Amino acid sequence: MKYAFYPGCVARGGAPELYDSAVAVMDRLGIEHVELTKASCNGAGVLQEKNRKLGDILNVRTLALAEQMGLPIMTICSTCQGVISQANHRVLRDPAYLEEVNTYLAEEGLEYKGTTVVKHLLWILIEDIGLEKLKSTFTRELTGVNIAPFYGCYIVRPSDALGFGENPERQTSLDEMIKAVGASVTDFPGKTKCCGFPILMINQKNSMKMVSQHTGDAKDRGADAMVTPCPLCHLNLDGYQPKARKNNRGDKADLPIIHLPQMLGLAMGMDHKSLGLQRHIVSTTSLVRKTETVPAGGSAESD
Amino acid sequence: MQANIKVRRFNPETPSKEAHYQEFSVDVHESSSVLDALIKVREEVDGTLALRCSCRASICGSCSMRVNGQATLVCKTRLEEVAPNGEQITIDPMGNMPVIKDLVVDMKLHWDKVRAVDPYLRPGGPEPDGEYIAPNEAMEHLVGVMNCIMCGACVSDCTALEVDENFTGPAALAKAYRFVADPRDDTTHERLGKLNEYPHIWDCTRCYYCVEVCPKDVAPMDRIMKMRDMAIEDGYTNTPGYRHTESFVSSVRKHGRLDESRLAVDSVGWTNLPGLLDLAPVGLKALRKGKLPPIIPHKAEDHKQIRKIVDKLEDEAK
């Protein structure tokens, strides 16, 4: 298994612990990855507000770079996954548009033929690695830990760009991943809703209401943590949770928001520091303690 | 086939006034819609079940409700699609609007918002003898948005409306676009000026729920994004939304990647002292945890190539 790795800006910026934990998990699983160092930011839907065609050209350029390497793209961010998928979807259903977009890439000697597959690590683990192989790398079942899934909008909508027809299991993939590590899924109404990050700088009051509602709802339903495949959701739900909860519920931030690879790393018995769990704004200590009460090697012994 | 349905019931005339779920099973034809099954329940099992419907052909827009948590026209939703193996489906009334009884909601909020965007043509110049005519090619791009049947599905599932009922919402903003982008309208600048303010185009979260649930492919969010672009082009640059977008594009142009620290400060505005002070605590916390984005952002290799593309597109847009 080899992929053209597209980490995205946030994993290289505001959430470096995502990058480190993703690489650690990939190494443990033997997933080879070559980073797409020439690729640009995908625009996150923001650049597209000003100029959608520019966004499409930049993303088709990324798709062409991977095509040249003969590799599928791996993302670790719901927003990157969705935005690149949407661009791919638009050019694949309109050959004339693809031709037009390609004219902008000619100077660099690039041409996208339309063959690149783009997959989030979350989907790769289920579709390419398989849950059985994944589980064989776990040394510690997170039994008794309650985890709420938070998908991030762009990995679930718009569905026509995300291959749900051929891969319906993608719609519940994060729930499945929580079950795979032996934890219990805490269901709550907000799991596919907006985290509020896109309007953080525009309407902070509404953004904070979303953070408070989702983290509060999950906590009220018994969650010990929330896991997300989207670092943008993480930034808002973690970084702004203290302010959001204080202003809207009058209580304290008490729900750790962990990245998908951090959850897998914990099940693989990795040290919480190497997973960057001390780098979060909302303390992850209670979660780490709870996972450590399950003896390392617990699941192996029971086999 | 058997339809297994769990319906949220609410009757304001019961003493407790509490909502509850009730389960029904009815035999229906394999080609049945969810609406067919609900009507069968009402006609044969429980005549007190309240729901709205009329045309049964996704034209009238009366029968929007939530199927398994997502708004849809139930006449257009085939039972076989949502319950291929006879699974139980859950039916709730639309969200973001008060429930009158069972599956019937009060859509006043929706209609008020549509009225508020002045949904009428405001042509300029002398009145013509006949109709105000526009060439076909100038109107074709509006066909999608004119398909709206005002069913309210997008209003029901809008995540911005859920936290702020003042937000204009997807249906009304799509309707606003229909007139903003009409070549015969003479008030585009004024319309955009109003839409540029709270609680209109910039308060959308870009969550795609409206695009996903719309039964008519109106794509309200895409229209909202288009109006952001039009407002910027029309000179409305006094908003954090504009500064955010500009900073984003400029960062990608400069580095090929996003400069997150700069984006935050640019969006708030360099002269907005209270706004900057508000950012500081979060920045300090992030710094302490080793999470503050690098001051000099990572650059993409060959970022000059990316700059060339951005410049070319910006030139074309002028």
Task: Write a compact overview of the structure shown.
The complex is a heterodimer of chains A (303) and B (318). Chain A has 303 residues and is of the alpha/beta class.
Outline the secondary-structure elements.
The complex is a heterodimer of chains A (303) and B (318).
Chain A: E1 2-6, H1 16-29, E2 32-35, H2 47-50, H3 52-69, E3 73-75, H4 78-92, H5 95-103, E4 118-120, H6 121-129, H7 131-136, E5 146-149, H8 173-180, E6 184-185, H9 204-220, E7 225-228, H10 231-239, H11 241-249, E8 257-259, H12 260-267, H13 285-292, H14 298-302
Parallel strand pairs in A: 1-2, 1-3, 3-4, 5-6, 5-7, 7-8
Chain B: E1 2-9, E2 20-27, H1 34-45, E3 64-67, E4 70-73, H2 79-82, E5 88-92, E6 99-101, E7 104-105, H3 108-116, H4 136-139, H5 143-146, H6 153-157, H7 159-163, H8 170-180, H9 188-195, H10 209-213, H11 220-233, H12 240-255, H13 260-268, H14 273-288, H15 303-317
Parallel strand pairs in B: 1-5
Antiparallel strand pairs in B: 1-2, 3-4, 3-5, 6-7
Helix pairs in contact in B: 3-8, 8-11, 12-13, 12-15
